[in-house]
Every structure is written in structure tokens, then in C-alpha cells.
Design goal:
114 residues; two-stranded antiparallel sheet; 2 strands
């Protein structure tokens, strides 16, 4: 069975959200909130130090701070969806969330090389 890292799995969730985004908006709102809540919970677990190892390496304080930033941004996206459903705005927010996860993954790889 293939073993995937948490950042990779979170990244895949975001990609799936973007694909689902263009479907029925009301039904999608509930799905988006649920998936974002899952992403938020996982990012919080990493940020709080509940997850000690990612990709067979110990999570550094810098990485935990990055995941706290991802959790905070995810909460902002969730709040925006709860207030209203602007398709363009949510699409931009999902792109930014993906960029933040990419940045966290890249820093994780840079930490590994050091």
C-alpha cells in the first residue's frame, strides 16, 4: 500500500475541492465547509504538535508555525463561505490555500536537505 505524507494528502484535498467547486452551489457549500473543517483540524493538529512526524522527519517549530498560518487562513475561507457564496472569491481563496500548502511542503523539503 502506498504511503503518502500529510501535506500531500491535504494538498490533494484542496485540489479535489477546486474540482468540485463548479458544481451545485448550495450542495457544494456544505461539502466545502466539511472538507475545509477537515483541513483545518489536520493543520491544527500539526501546528499544536500533536503530529510529531511528517515524511519520517520530526516537525520543526518553523513548520508548526507555517501550519498554524494554514489553519488560520482555512478558518478565514470557512468564515467567508458561511457569510456568502461568491464563486470567484472562493476560487481565489482555494488557490491561495493551495499556495500556502505548497510553500509548507517546499520548506519541509528544504529542512530535509539541511
Amino acid at each position: 500500500m502506498a504511503k503518502f505524507s500529510r501535506p500531500f494528502l491535504i494538498y490533494r484535498r484542496i485540489l479535489k475541492l477546486e474540482e468540485k467547486f463548479h458544481a451545485d452551489t448550495q450542495r457544494l457549500r456544505g461539502k466545502l465547509m466539511q472538507e475545509l473543517e477537515n483541513i483545518f483540524d489536520e493543520a491544527c493538529r500539526i501546528a499544536k504538535g500533536e503530529v510529531k512526524i511528517i515524511d519520517e522527519r520530526e516537525v520543526t517549530m518553523k513548520q508548526r508555525q507555517m501550519w498554524a498560518r494554514i489553519a488560520a487562513y482555512t478558518a478565514q475561507v470557512m468564515q467567508g463561505i458561511a457569510k456568502g457564496f461568491d464563486e470567484r472569491e472562493i476560487d481565489e481563496q482555494l488557490k491561495e490555500l493551495r499556495r500556502l500548502v505548497d510553500e509548507a511542503k517546499a520548506k519541509s523539503g528544504a529542512d530535509r536537505a539541511a
